[in-house]
Inverse folding.
């Protein structure tokens, strides 16, 4: 069959429901007898909880329950690790949900209340009496690493490659990776540069705040509706923390208003379940925007030092990197991802990578679209431009001379399979965004390259032929980015029917096989393989049904656009509608499943070129032009691919120029609203042009590569490089807002 639907700009199937308000989100769920919950949060960044007294709150008319960490099963140390883009210990998920023994950051959940009305629940929070013993807060990760620093977790010992250290420390883990002899590499270099680059904590900025509804049935079964990126991951978290079997927990998919990695782990679901169990009634919890900023899973602050050497002809000889990640109140942080992604574009014979995962009295960090990669690229791509300047080599040419190729080793792990970095850089070199001279004072052009390895976790789907000859496809992956539409296109392509003959939905955890989280740029890559399997099996089953009905050999049948016909007897033919109707009388329903567990990685590379103009009096940066180049393997739906690239670029622009948590000296977040926590608007960015390359990945039936992660990485260094070329000032700390740039240009920072 010809490629009729893959590659088409099909409109998103969920668009009408979203724009008309018919789409159902977690906060829209309303169940009979439902109560409304609210969460009491700590006013301290670090304090022991001496006593919690809910007597007055429970006496308030309309209040039905108050729960604390004491209502969980006994805390177990060393629990199961939940896997997503950023690993997280299940014990830590439990402690994020409700503080156990002491609070570890300002806004840490202490208790939850359920009442007949949300306003009553809010009033009840003020009646819960909590006695605290404040402790010194540990806020700077580099200070927290010192031996005399106050301890966030006195029982914590540092994990190293060689084992666990004996003494307590805020350093949760160290990482060391090396290849070759880095000192030898620096000795043969003609130019060596070394600098430290810093980034702040930033939030994912999803539009829909966290929300959850929980119901506990009399038999002990739990049903949860949640704003989550992974139904099955959430089920595993709830079952493990509550000491239930997975079969006792059902997670029902609802629409999700953005996640970007921030909705991988439970926040509200656990207290909602505790309240539902206590009251015997459904309970809804919805976060305010302030709560979202204070107490969810933002991306980590970092301090990354890079020392890089190169020969006079522009060949990299060695790179040494030291990365400190602020993990927040609990481990774990994406330290290794920073190494892997930032150095992966280049052939480097000698490397030495040293990383530290440090706990502080900040909110527990999570994933944000390519976790760890933007921070690493900010440092490495900045150093690449500095090397190019010292060597008097064009910055693109320096990258071309050192670009990695298929078969070259990654900084960590296996060698690259099929990749398209070299063709990508050739496309940049020939594109007007790079070749057109940039005229005018205080204008600069910046370039940066990025890499994301792509995740390959399990995906599953079910396909059913309906009695009218149409198909229903149920996938296990939460739809964040329009993946129902792309899976519809894959199914239509393989089944040879028009997309209008297929409905696609996201299944709950009882109705489809285990599917891992929607994250890591993996869903279109892996789920398309599962859908392909299901369609192939479906057509095989239908061929057998048609052959039996027509009394011919199955191999005699041809299939095209919904019709099975005999090559021998032209009058013998059956349509899908015929087979659907007959399935009600003979043979029963026709169903097929598709599932994938492991596939080869599908590495993705991108490059961004940005032109800026800087107001030398105010430090204001104006974006003039922005072009994003990316190898996507195969663009199933080019419109959605372009949207993903543009959206990632905008988020990276915000990270680079305006976003960042601002904490007081006592650890209180000062900009916990969208007025003070600034994000880009339409007036802040120009149209983002996209250039799509399609160099097929090594695995899968279509050569697809993930798209969503990679485009958030280059904006940070590309903008820093452009600003440097416009002003002569190198900014090494984000955000590069007007104030920071003004002081840097005045020689007082940067």
């Amino acid at each position: 069959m010809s490629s009729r639907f893959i590659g088409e700009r099909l409109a998103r199937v969920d668009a009408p429901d979203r724009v008309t308000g018919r789409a159902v989100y977690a906060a829209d769920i309303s169940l009979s007898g439902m109560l409304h919950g609210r969460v009491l949060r700590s006013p301290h960044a670090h304090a022991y909880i001496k006593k919690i007294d809910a007597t007055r709150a429970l006496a308030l008319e309309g209040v039905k329950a108050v729960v604390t960490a004491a209502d969980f099963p006994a805390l177990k140390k060393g629990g199961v690790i939940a896997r997503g883009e950023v690993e997280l210990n299940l014990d830590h998920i439990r402690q994020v949900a409700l503080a156990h023994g002491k609070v570890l950051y300002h806004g840490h959940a202490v208790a939850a209340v359920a009442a007949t009305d949300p306003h009553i629940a809010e009033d009840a929070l003020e009646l819960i009496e909590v006695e605290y013993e404040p402790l010194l807060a540990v806020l700077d990760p580099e200070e927290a690493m010192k031996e005399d620093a106050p301890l966030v977790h006195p029982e914590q010992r540092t994990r190293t490659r060689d084992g666990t250290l004996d003494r307590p420390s805020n350093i949760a883990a160290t990482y060391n990776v090396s290849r070759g002899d880095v000192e030898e590499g620096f000795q043969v270099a003609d130019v060596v540069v070394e600098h430290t680059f810093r980034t702040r904590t930033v939030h994912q900025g999803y539009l829909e705040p966290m929300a959850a509804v929980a119901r506990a049935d009399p038999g002990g079964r739990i049903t949860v509706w949640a704003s989550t990126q992974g139904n099955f991951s959430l089920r595993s978290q709830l079952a493990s923390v509550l000491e239930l079997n997975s079969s006792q927990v059902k997670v029902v998919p609802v629409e999700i208003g953005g996640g970007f990695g921030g909705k991988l782990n439970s926040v509200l679901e656990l207290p909602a379940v505790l309240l539902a169990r206590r009251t015997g009634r459904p309970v809804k919890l919805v976060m305010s925007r302030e709560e979202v900023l204070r107490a969810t899973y933002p991306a980590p602050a970092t301090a990354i030092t890079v020392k890089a050497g190169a020969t006079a002809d522009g060949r990299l000889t060695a790179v040494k990197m030291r990365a400190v990640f602020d993990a927040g109140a609990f481990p774990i942080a994406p330290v290794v991802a920073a190494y892997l992604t930032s150095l992966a574009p280049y052939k480097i014979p000698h490397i030495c990578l040293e990383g530290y995962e440090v706990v502080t009295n900040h909110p527990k960090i999570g994933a944000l679209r390519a976790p760890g990669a933007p921070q690493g690229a900010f440092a490495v791509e900045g150093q690449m431009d500095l090397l190019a300047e010292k060597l008097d080599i064009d910055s693109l040419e320096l990258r071309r001379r050192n670009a990695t190729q298929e078969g070259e080793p990654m900084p960590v792990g296996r060698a690259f399979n099929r990749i398209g970095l070299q063709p990508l850089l050739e496309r940049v070199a020939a594109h007007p965004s790079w070749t057109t001279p940039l005229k005018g004072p205080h204008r600069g052009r910046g370039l940066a390259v990025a890499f994301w390895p792509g995740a390959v976790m399990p995906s599953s789907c079910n396909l059913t032929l309906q009695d009218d000859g149409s198909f229903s496809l149920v996938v296990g992956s939460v739809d964040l980015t329009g993946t129902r539409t792309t899976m519809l296109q894959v199914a239509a392509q393989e089944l040879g029917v028009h997309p209008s003959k297929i409905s696609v939905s996201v299944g709950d955890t009882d109705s489809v096989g285990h599917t891992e989280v929607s994250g890591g740029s993996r869903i279109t890559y892996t789920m398309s393989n599962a859908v392909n399997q299901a369609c192939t099996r479906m057509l095989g089953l239908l061929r057998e049904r048609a052959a039996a009905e027509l009394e011919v050999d199955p191999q005699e049948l041809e299939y095209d656009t919904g019709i099975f016909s005999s090559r021998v007897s032209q009058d013998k033919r059956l349509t899908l509608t015929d087979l659907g109707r007959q399935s009600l009388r003979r043979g029963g329903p026709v169903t097929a499943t598709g599932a994938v567990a492991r596939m080869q990685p599908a590495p993705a590379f991108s490059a961004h070129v940005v032109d800026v103009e800087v107001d030398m009096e105010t430090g204001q940066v104006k974006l003039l032009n922005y072009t994003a180049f990316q190898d996507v393997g195969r663009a199933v739906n080019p419109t959605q691919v372009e949207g993903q690239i543009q959206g990632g670029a905008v988020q990276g622009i915000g990270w680079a120029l305006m976003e960042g948590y601002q904490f007081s000296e006592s650890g209180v977040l000062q900009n916990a609203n969208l007025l003070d926590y600034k994000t880009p608007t339409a007036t802040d960015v120009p149209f983002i042009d996209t250039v799509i390359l399609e160099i097929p990945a090594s695995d899968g039936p279509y050569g697809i590569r993930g798209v969503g992660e990679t485009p958030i990485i280059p904006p940070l260094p590309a903008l820093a490089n452009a600003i440097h070329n416009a002003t002569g000032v190198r900014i090494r700390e984000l955000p590069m807002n007007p104030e920071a740039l003004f002081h840097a240009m005045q020689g007082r920072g940067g």
